[in-house]
TrEMBL record:
The keyword Transcription does not apply. This is Uncharacterized protein. The chain crosses the membrane at residues 73-97, 118-143, 155-177. PANTHER family: SERPENTINE RECEPTOR, CLASS J (PTHR45907). SUPFAM superfamilies: Family A G protein-coupled receptor-like. Coiled coil: none annotated. InterPro entries: 7TM_GPCR_serpentine_rcpt_Srj. It comes from Caenorhabditis briggsae. The keyword Cell membrane does not apply. Keywords: Membrane, Signal, Transmembrane, Transmembrane helix.
Length: 216
């Protein structure tokens, strides 16, 4: 369990990470007049909007001034380094956690079984951000460099993938850990029972006074 100083350090780390990312975007990938002119026709045709009225972050690798190309490459390479570092951190921390869990001789069979389940969950949780966060970003950043015209597919797949991360990450834990999984299956199989729990029904009795008996 983390001490208060550890929690504070973790909070500061996340703040610094966000500041570094935002600083790189504002310094190297901001959209100026040349960038707005470059995409004006395409945005007018596809979205019917004026690119000069938009706030954007953009990298131009070709057909631009040397200054634009220089800062575009610098911004993308720095962001690639930050992203690669984050993914590497997932892998290293996951490996350390699994090694720590495995280095417990003499534990009970129940604990060993729980550790194996946690191994699987950690492996999946390491794999998920690589697939739906890191890979779409790399494709969007370096696709134009490789001559890949992703078009609207980049918008559809990239946005959906990034939005799915908060759902898929806890879902992996629910599915891989039996206690959570069995509870979820029970809820799915008996939705009416859970939705109607705590409700009451009123049925008339057979006496002539018209009284009713409330059943819970």
């Amino acid at each position: 369990m983390l001490r208060p100083s550890g929690l504070f350090g973790l909070f500061i780390f996340f703040i610094c990470h966000g500041i570094a990312w935002s600083t790189v975007c504002e310094m190297f990938l901001y959209g100026d007049q040349e960038v707005s002119d470059y995409i004006y026709e395409g945005f007018r045709r596809d979205y019917n909007v004026d690119s000069h009225d938009l706030s954007m972050l953009m990298a131009l690798f070709f057909d631009a001034s040397p200054e634009i190309k220089r800062r575009s490459w610098m911004g993308i390479l720095i962001l690639t380094g930050i992203s690669t570092y984050a993914v590497s951190l997932y892998i290293v921390l996951g490996w350390k956690i699994m090694r720590k869990l495995a280095d417990n001789p003499g534990v009970s069979k129940t604990t060993q079984k729980l550790h194996r389940q946690l191994f699987k969950a950690l492996a999946v949780q390491t794999f998920i951000p690589i697939c739906i966060s890191f890979s779409p970003c790399m494709m969007a950043w370096y696709g134009p460099v490789l001559g890949l015209d992703l078009g609207m597919w980049n918008n559809y797949l990239g946005v959906i993938a990034l939005s799915a991360f908060p759902v898929l990450d806890p879902l992996a834990i629910i599915i891989l850990l039996p206690n959570y999984r069995n509870k979820l299956i029970g809820v799915v199989k008996r939705p009416i029972k859970y939705l109607n729990s705590g409700t009451s029904a009123v049925r008339p009795t057979g006496d002539s006074s018209g009284a009713a008996t409330q059943l819970y």
